[in-house]
Amino acid sequence: MKKINVIADKEMHSFIEKFLEDRSVDFSVDTVESYSKRNDINDHIKENDLNLLKQGYFNAQVFQSSYQEVPTRLLVPKEFSSLKDWSKEYSMLHELGHFFSLKNNLIFDYYKYLEENNLRGELFNIPFEIEAEKYVFENNKKLFEKNANAVYFNYLRQIKDIIGKINSNSIRNYKDFYNIYEIRLFRYSSIIKFVCESEIELYKKHMENIKKIKKLLAMKGSFFVKINSGLDRIITSLSDDFYKGNFIQYINRCKEIYSILE
User: Fold this and answer.
1) What is the pLDDT of residues 40-51, one digit of tens each?
2) Over the stretch 171-225, which tens digit does the pLDDT of each residue have?
3) CB contact set of 74 (below 8 Å; sequence gap of 6+)
4) Mean pLDDT for all residues in the chain
5) pTM (whole model) above 0.70
6) CB contact set of 75 (below 8 Å; sequence gap of 6+)
7) What letter would DSSP give residue 37?
8) Rg (CA), the chain
């Protein structure tokens, strides 16, 4: 595995260092200032990383590549320090899940295929999110459940709050499709299906929540019903195609859903 280059505020270094040391991860830690002065990182990569840290719209995020020459970076914005301790730990476990997932040959090959073909879209990334959440679930089930209850159960309420503003034109806007469908229905459903199906009560509670989200969106009309129906094809293709080594077929299922928006 590659070394993780961590970029974070000084006040978070001791927490991050202990977390990674406990898991025997090879890493280095920089502040924004020291990272900006490094000569061993491509200037274009550094510029993108520093801009993302300045925007700070995420808790912590691993950026990695199947290409050996591209370094792995863990970006930790200022806002990370304000999270509750359990949420910090969850975020770090999730990102380590992404990091370690490249040890899986199928995930590595899929990552490489997306990079080589410049395929972008959250539907394509769902297998990565499943693997990251699997890592959390396998290493700390209670933490997985706490985050799932705090975040995923809120998706229904969040959609209810904006449902009056949603229509077939607005959903064709990438940001709306990403926030409503890619994150709060497709990714959510896939994680629950492939990560915690063994935890019957937890699984049943979340599946009921997902059914309510689908029903709420379906009330907006046939266009939304058509997108909803793509969820079953995604779940089936993950099971029957992707996890049996045929990720090209899974990519085609994703493209079919994106084509509905055209």
Assistant:
1) 999 999 999 999
2) 998 889 999 999 999 999 999 999 999 999 999 999 999 999 999 999 999 999 9
3) 4, 5, 6, 7, 8, 16, 27, 60, 61, 62, 63, 95, 99
4) 95
5) yes
6) 7, 8, 49, 52, 53, 58, 60, 61, 63
7) T
8) 19
Token pair for 38: 């490094």
Strand partners, 6: 29, 74
Q: Is 94 exposed, middle or buried (0-12, 13-18, 19+ CB in 10 A)?
A: buried
Instruction: Give the 3-state secondary structure of residue 6.
Output: strand
Pairing of strands 61-63, 72-75: antiparallel
> Would you state the pLDDT for residue 155?
97
Taking residues 88-108, report their average pLDDT. 97
Report pLDDT digits (tens) over 49-86.
Answer: 999 999 878 899 999 999 999 999 999 999 999 999 99
One DSSP character per residue, 121-142 reads -HHHHHHHHHHHHHHHHHH-HH
- What burial class does residue 217 get, using C-beta atoms within 10 Å of its C-beta: 0-12 exposed, 13-18 middle, 19+ buried? buried
Contact of 182 with 122, CB cutoff 8 Å: yes
- DSSP annotation string for 164-192: GG--HHHHTSHHHHIIIIIIIIIIHHHHH
Strands 27-30 and 72-75: unpaired
Q: Which two tokens stand for residue 75?
A: 């970006």
